[in-house]
Automatic annotation (TrEMBL):
<dbReference type="InterPro" id="IPR050415">
    <property type="entry name" value="MRET"/>
</dbReference>
<dbReference type="GO" id="GO:0016491">
    <property type="term" value="F:oxidoreductase activity"/>
</dbReference>
<dbReference type="InterPro" id="IPR012675">
    <property type="entry name" value="Beta-grasp_dom_sf"/>
</dbReference>
<dbReference type="InterPro" id="IPR008333">
    <property type="entry name" value="Cbr1-like_FAD-bd_dom"/>
</dbReference>
<feature type="domain" description="FAD-binding FR-type">
    <location>
        <begin position="35"/>
        <end position="139"/>
    </location>
</feature>
<dbReference type="InterPro" id="IPR036010">
    <property type="entry name" value="2Fe-2S_ferredoxin-like_sf"/>
</dbReference>
<dbReference type="InterPro" id="IPR039261">
    <property type="entry name" value="FNR_nucleotide-bd"/>
</dbReference>
<dbReference type="InterPro" id="IPR017938">
    <property type="entry name" value="Riboflavin_synthase-like_b-brl"/>
</dbReference>
<dbReference type="InterPro" id="IPR001433">
    <property type="entry name" value="OxRdtase_FAD/NAD-bd"/>
</dbReference>
<keyword id="KW-0830">Ubiquinone</keyword>
<dbReference type="GO" id="GO:0051536">
    <property type="term" value="F:iron-sulfur cluster binding"/>
</dbReference>
<dbReference type="InterPro" id="IPR017927">
    <property type="entry name" value="FAD-bd_FR_type"/>
</dbReference>
<protein>
    <submittedName>
        <fullName>Putative Oxidoreductase</fullName>
    </submittedName>
</protein>
<dbReference type="Pfam" id="PF00970">
    <property type="entry name" value="FAD_binding_6"/>
</dbReference>
<dbReference type="InterPro" id="IPR001041">
    <property type="entry name" value="2Fe-2S_ferredoxin-type"/>
</dbReference>
<dbReference type="Pfam" id="PF00175">
    <property type="entry name" value="NAD_binding_1"/>
</dbReference>
Length: 347
C-alpha cells in the first residue's frame, strides 16, 4: 500500500509523498503546515541586547521532547522563500514538559540573510522546526564538569543547567568567553547560582583574560564540555588531549566558498544514493536533469516549490538575486539554485 501511494505521489503528483502535494491546501487550515516538518507557534520575542534575541516557541504536541544540549533547524518563510538555520535550544526538557515552550537565544547580524527577519516575526505566527538533533548532552556520571562557552555557545549549557535537580551533587564550573559586556543571559546564570549549590561561573574575555587553560582546575575536572567557535574547539581539544581529560564539543564551522563566484567550477553533490558532479554555471535542477537524475519539478521558476529539497551542508547561490546561503541545513529549490561549494542534499 505504501509503495502504491509512493508511486502515485512520484508519478502523478510529482511529490515525494502525497502529503507534500496537499501542502498548499493544508496551509489554509493549518498555517505553516509542511510535510516532514513540525509546526511551532511564536509565543515571545525579547531583545536581549543590541544583537541578540530570545525567541520562545510552542512546538506542536507531537514534537519529540528534546534532551538539553540538542539543537533544531528553524525554518521561516521570507518573501515566498523558505530559509532555515540551526540553533541550540536554550531551555531544558523540564520547561517543555511544564509549559509546552522552548527558548532559542540567537545572535543577530544586520547583514545576515536569516537573523534580520527574526525580529519581524509576529506573536502567534507560525514557523517550522525539525525534530531535536545532536549528541551534545550532559554525562550523568560526571561529578566535576567544566563547561567552556564562547559567545552564543552558552545556550546548550543554559539548557543543561536548567534541567539539573536542586539537590544535584554535581560540581559544575562554567567559563564563559564573550566580548566585554556582551555575555548573554547573565541574569539566568545568577539564578542558577542560587538554585544549584555546586555551580559557579566566570565571565571572561579573550583580550583581558587570555586562554581558558589557566582557569581549568585539572583535579576538579572529570570532563570538559565545549561549545563555541572553531578556534576555541581546537584549543580545547589540544588542551584535553595533553592532560588526558575527556572532552566533548559542539561547534559550528564556518565554510566559505573556495572559488571566486564568477569562475566556472565543478562541485560534488552528495545525495541519498551516490554522488554527482555538477557545474556552478547552471541550476541544480538543470544539472540533475542532464545527468538523468529523477527529480520532481513543476514551474522551473521558483514558484511552486515542487523541486524543493533539504540541503544538509554546503553553500548555494540563489539565481534570482545572487544571495548566498550559509553552510547549515536549509530547504532549497533546485530550479533557482546553483552550487557554490560541495553540497550534501536529501532529495
Ligand atoms: S520547479 Fe517550481 S519551484 Fe522549482
Amino acid at each position: 500500500m505504501q509503495n502504491i501511494s509512493q508511486f502515485i505521489s512520484n508519478n502523478l503528483f510529482h511529490h515525494k509523498d502525497l502529503a507534500g502535494y496537499f501542502e498548499p491546501v493544508m496551509q489554509v487550515i493549518k498555517p505553516a503546515w509542511r510535510s516532514g516538518f513540525f509546526r511551532s507557534q511564536v509565543k515571545g520575542i525579547r531583545v536581549l541586547s543590541e544583537n541578540a534575541l530570545k525567541i520562545t516557541l510552542k512546538p506542536e504536541k507531537k514534537w519529540p521532547i528534546h534532551t538539553a544540549g540538542q539543537h533544531i533547524s528553524l525554518t521561516i518563510e521570507q518573501q515566498g522563500r523558505l530559509i532555515s538555520r540551526v540553533f541550540t535550544i536554550a531551555s531544558g526538557a523540564k520547561k517543555l514538559k511544564e509549559t509546552g515552550l522552548i527558548d532559542l537565544v540567537i545572535r543577530t547580524h544586520d547583514k545576515g540573510n536569516f537573523t534580520p527577519y527574526l525580529g519581524e516575526l509576529a506573536m502567534n505566527s507560525w514557523v517550522n522546526i525539525s525534530e531535536p538533533m545532536g549528541e551534545f548532552i550532559f554525562d550523568e556520571q560526571s561529578n566535576h564538569t567544566t563547561f567552556l562557552a564562547g559567545g552564543s555557545g552558552i545556550t546548550p549549557f543554559i539548557a543543561m543547567l536548567d534541567d539539573l535537580q536542586e539537590n544535584t551533587q554535581k560540581h559544575i564550573h562554567l567559563l564563559y568567553y564573550a566580548k566585554p559586556n556582551s555575555h548573554l543571559m547573565v541574569d539566568v546564570l545568577e539564578k542558577f547560582l542560587i538554585r544549584l549549590p555546586n555551580f559557579s561561573f566566570e565571565l571572561l574575555n579573550r583580550s583581558q583574560h587570555g586562554s581558558f587553560s589557566k582557569f581549568v582546575s585539572i583535579e576538579h575536572t572529570d570532563e570538559l564540555l565545549v561549545c563555541g567557535p572553531e578556534e576555541m574547539y581546537v584549543e580545547a581539544e589540544e588542551f584535553c588531549k595533553s592532560r588526558h581529560i575527556p572532552f566533548r564539543a559542539e561547534h559550528f564551522q564556518a565554510i566559505k566558498p573556495t572559488k571566486s563566484l564568477n569562475e566556472a567550477a565543478r562541485f560534488t553533490v552528495k545525495l541519498n544514493h551516490g554522488d554527482l558532479e555538477v557545474s556552478n554555471q547552471d541550476s541544480l535542477l538543470s544539472e540533475f536533469q542532464s545527468h538523468n537524475k529523477p527529480v520532481m519539478y513543476g514551474c522551473g521558476m521558483g514558484i511552486c516549490h515542487q523541486c524543493q529539497c533539504l540541503k544538509k551542508k554546503g553553500i548555494v547561490r540563489d539565481i534570482r538575486d545572487g544571495s548566498l546561503s550559509d553552510n547549515s541545513e536549509e530547504l532549497i529549490q533546485l530550479c533557482v539554485t546553483q552550487a557554490v561549494t560541495d553540497l550534501e542534499l536529501e532529495l
